[in-house]
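User: I've been trying to design a sequence by hand for this structure and keep getting stuck. Would you show me what you'd pick, starting by listing the structure so we're on the same page?

Assistant: Good idea, let's start from the same input. This is the structure you sent:
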């Protein structure tokens, strides 16, 4: 393994160094003279590189996958221009020996093959190639690049939003969503770079025109003035060398221009160009049979020479034969398709019969059902604000509670009122609300300076009295001090509160397994100690984590939780006992959760449980035979007295918007007190133990507001 890594890094270093060396060498080529043999070699390399680039483009299915193409185009363009400078220098310094004696083999070969010793013909061909590049290929590719870049930038946000919608609906995973967003960003960056890269190609063509003209005129004048050549010899030599050099430089440039055009006009297909053309041009056999018939008819009309007639009839017959073969293939494919459909129907019928005997209908972990009037809130064409807020809810739950909330499935429910919604956890309704589309909910949070009239209602999350107002009165309500909430925010807030209060129900063994597996990647020792050494089961860890989440304690610090379980691994795995120990280990985190972050003194205000009530709770503990948490068996009088004592202390605090916090003397008493008040004060009262406050140390300052006494 080490040898392979060493080889990989060595190869990477060599390739990077080679590219850097080549880039510096190209720049120096603009200044340094080269010999004829070296010039021929570099020209062959230039042609080879352009052919490779052209073929790579043909075999690349998606343009954005070739993200290095703009930089490669720049590199090759500068290389070609450097070769132009070298060849110009070589022609001027060695052209006086005459065309036949000139030792630039590549330049002479192109001049002989293309121009055949006639500079006028070569120059015309050179001009035609330039016109094709400038007017047709380069201009078209530049325009397409510009449009693609503009549309890629304009559509990037909507594409990102569509990925978020797929993620929220559960059709893709988080990793797939990240990959899709990276592909969208890469595509946008690619087309933006190609918009500028096309200017390199067009600039290279224009530079080729000027270099050729300079070579032609400058070469003749230089030979006559400096090298004492007569005019006839200069005209016979330098135009041929110039045209050969110009054609030689324009061939790679033409290949790069065509490759650029092919790349920017490509779509988002995952197939290479050859496969795509093969599939799309095999759409119908009639196309080729009709084309063959037309060519055969042309042979009758244009019967000027026998050769022309033979060519037309032969090509027409070939197309008709190809169309006939394709028609037979279409019939075979159609018959095969019918057989597959029949087999599929038979399989579906068999599966249906099997399902009737043993139906399995899995429940969605989390599901938001919407009435038909609320479907616009998740319509991508109309903003779909709710989808974005659901993504934010899941992210916030992961940060605040340490719980990765499963994907929330959103479906319509015709049995609901059109403007009603329902949130379910594993098929059981956990909350329901009713909205008014086009209206805003206004809450009086205590800062209202002047009340306004509206349709009375209640906030579905906390049951606070509120009113509905139209959109035209929104600014008026905000000026008067109301908290104005739109329908998507109402649903999002309600869902957030439901997830927080039902986090223990959302967490299951599968989620615990995923957490343990993830932690094992970074902390394998503690996971091995908990799972292998002390044999904790997923069910036992699940009960402990659920006990924390039930009181809204974040399990994000899962490493500390597992370390605490390992510390008490030799003892019986009693969740009631272990929850208290884990809370003690998380004491600072828990206490800071209820401290005002803006308070420099970090004051923790609590109501202390009296020693009498603590002793009475301990005296009435009843253990469960099934190993579950013990309960307090108060008689009706004691139960009523305890609730009255708690209510008389916490209600005044709630009226002052202060969160009531009860301080119990021990972890065991703390959990029993929470059991006693959970049903009467769900989610509105916090119970801490003295051990948890002591674990926070000097980070919080305890303030006793009162005592719950008999």
């Amino acid at each position: 393994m080490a040898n392979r890594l060493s080889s990989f890094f060595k190869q990477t270093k060599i390739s990077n160094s080679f590219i850097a060396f080549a880039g510096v060498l190209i720049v120096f080529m603009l200044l340094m003279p080269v010999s004829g043999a070296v010039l021929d070699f570099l020209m062959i390399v230039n042609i080879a590189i352009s052919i490779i680039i052209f073929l790579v483009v043909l075999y690349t299915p998606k343009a954005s996958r070739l993200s290095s193409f703009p930089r490669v185009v720049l590199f090759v363009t500068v290389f070609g221009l450097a070769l132009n400078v070298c060849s110009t220098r070589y022609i001027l310094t060695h052209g006086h020996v005459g065309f036949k004696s000139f030792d630039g083999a590549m330049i002479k070969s192109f001049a002989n093959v293309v121009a055949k010793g006639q500079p006028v013909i070569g120059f015309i061909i050179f001009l035609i190639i330039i016109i094709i590049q400038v007017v047709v290929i380069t201009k078209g590719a530049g325009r397409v690049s510009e449009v693609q870049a503009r549309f890629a930038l304009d559509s990037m946000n909507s594409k990102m939003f569509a990925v978020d919608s797929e993620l929220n609906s559960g059709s893709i995973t988080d990793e797939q969503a990240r990959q899709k967003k990276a592909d969208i960003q890469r595509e946008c960056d690619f087309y933006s770079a190609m918009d500028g890269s096309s200017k390199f190609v067009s600039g290279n063509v224009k530079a080729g025109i000027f270099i050729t003209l300079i070579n032609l005129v400058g070469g003749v004048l230089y030979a006559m003035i400096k090298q004492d050549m007569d005019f006839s010899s200069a005209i016979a030599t330098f135009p041929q060398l110039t045209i050969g050099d110009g054609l030689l430089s324009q061939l790679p440039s033409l290949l790069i221009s065509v490759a650029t055009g092919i790349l920017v006009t490509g779509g988002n297909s995952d197939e290479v160009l050859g496969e795509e053309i093969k599939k799309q041009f095999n759409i119908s056999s009639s196309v080729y049979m009709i084309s063959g018939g037309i060519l055969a008819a042309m042979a009758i009309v244009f019967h000027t020479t026998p050769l022309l007639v033979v060519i037309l009839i032969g090509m027409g017959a070939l197309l008709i034969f190809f169309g006939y073969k394709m028609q037979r293939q279409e019939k075979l494919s159609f018959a095969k398709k019918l057989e597959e459909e029949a087999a599929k129907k038979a399989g579906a019928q068999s599966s249906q019969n099997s399902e009737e005997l043993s139906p399995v209908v899995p429940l969605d972990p989390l599901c938001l059902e919407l009435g038909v009037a609320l479907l616009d809130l998740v319509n991508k064409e109309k903003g779909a604000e709710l989808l974005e807020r659901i993504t934010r809810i899941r992210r916030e739950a992961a940060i605040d509670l340490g719980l990765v909330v499963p994907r929330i499935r959103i479906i319509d429910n015709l049995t609901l009122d059109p403007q009603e919604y329902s949130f379910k956890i594993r098929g059981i309704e956990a909350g329901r609300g009713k909205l008014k589309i086009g209206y805003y909910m206004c809450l009086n949070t205590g800062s209202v300076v002047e009340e306004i009239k509206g349709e009375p209602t209640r906030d579905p999350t906390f049951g606070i009295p509120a009113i509905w107002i139209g959109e035209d009165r929104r600014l008026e309500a905000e000026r008067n001090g109301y908290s104005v909430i739109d329908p998507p925010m109402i649903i999002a807030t309600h869902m957030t509160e439901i997830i927080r209060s039902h986090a223990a129900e959302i967490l299951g063994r599968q989620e615990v397994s995923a957490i343990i597996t993830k932690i094992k990647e970074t902390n394998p020792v503690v996971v091995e100690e908990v799972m292998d050494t002390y044999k904790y089961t997923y069910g036992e860890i699940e009960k402990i984590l659920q006990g924390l989440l039930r009181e809204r304690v974040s399990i994000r610090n899962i490493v500390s939780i597992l370390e605490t379980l390992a510390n008490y691994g030799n003892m019986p795995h009693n969740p009631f006992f272990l929850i208290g120990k884990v809370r003690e280990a998380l004491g600072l985190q828990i206490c800071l959760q209820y401290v005002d972050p803006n308070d420099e003194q970090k004051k923790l205000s609590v109501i202390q449980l009296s020693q009498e009530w603590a002793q009475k709770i301990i005296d009435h503990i009843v253990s469960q035979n099934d190993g579950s948490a013990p309960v307090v068996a108060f008689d009706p009088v004691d139960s009523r007295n305890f609730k009255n004592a708690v209510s008389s202390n916490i209600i005044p605090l709630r009226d002052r918007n202060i969160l009531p916090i009860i301080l119990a003397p021990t972890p065991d008493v703390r959990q029993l007190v929470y059991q006693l008040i959970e049903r009467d004060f769900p989610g509105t009262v916090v119970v801490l133990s003295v051990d948890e406050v002591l674990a926070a140390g000097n980070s919080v300052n305890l303030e006793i507001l009162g005592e719950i006494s008999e």
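That's my pick for every position. To get oriented when you compare it with your attempt: Residues 174-226 form the longest helix (53 residues). The CA atoms of residues 158 and 380 lie 9 Å apart.
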